[in-house]
Amino acid sequence: MKGRRRLTLTRHWLRWAPLSLAGVIVGCAVGPDFKTPDPPTVTTYSATPLPDETASADIAAGQAQVFRHDRDIPAEWWTLFQSPALDALVRQALQDNQRLAQAQARLVQAQEQFGGSKGAKRYPKVDVGVSSNRINVDSDAFKTDVFGAQFPLTLSTASVSVSYTLDLFGQNRRELEGLQAAVDYEQFQLEAARLMLAGNVVTAAIEEASLREQIEQTEAAVAIEAHQLEIMEGLERLGAVPAVEVIIQRSELATTRAGLPPLRERLEQTRNRLAVFRSFG
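Above: the chain's sequence. Below: its structure in token form.
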């Protein structure tokens, strides 16, 4: 009776042992399953709603601007300015910028690491080997000339081995998840660098155009005031205007001319900054 009872218990344990072992293996899996966090619930950039359009002004290009909340901004948002020169400038910067190239190289490196590890961890490993050995054989041992062989003989052998590591505890899956996360991170880094570079180039280009316009307007004002000074100096010689008005006109001309050097300096700084953005960002 005792022997039968012991045999029954042993069979019962063997029946449930695989399930128990599977539960232990599942319970020992490396790390929890990753769950994507919920996106933020906010739908606007500001706490208070923005107006549908801006105020208008009675000047050139002073019409009200309309906000289109239901439209998305394209990736190449600078093309909305409809300026071929600006578009060419941004595209050249995106092509020649070194930091952007570094971000692209880091993304490629992360993708290659993920691809190499994915193949190594998910698929069997196959090793192929070839070896050659020289064998010294006494030709007198063969009593026939059928073989027609030259001695010593060269024996070549080939071997193929296939191995696969079972991912029982999920370590390989977690490593691949980490490598995939690194790829996603570098992808977002590249996109952020691209957007930042395009924004810096467009801002610098608009500022450079504004400074050029200010310089042109200031130079035109200097030419007008200089011509007025010549007229007033002629009138002074004729005694038509007092000398004080000539002095005032000279002062206004000097003040207008004094505004040119700072504008030209800012223009050179902006152009240098634009050159840096195009090369290094």
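The domain at 80-279 is CATH 1.20.1600.10 (Outer membrane efflux proteins (OEP)).
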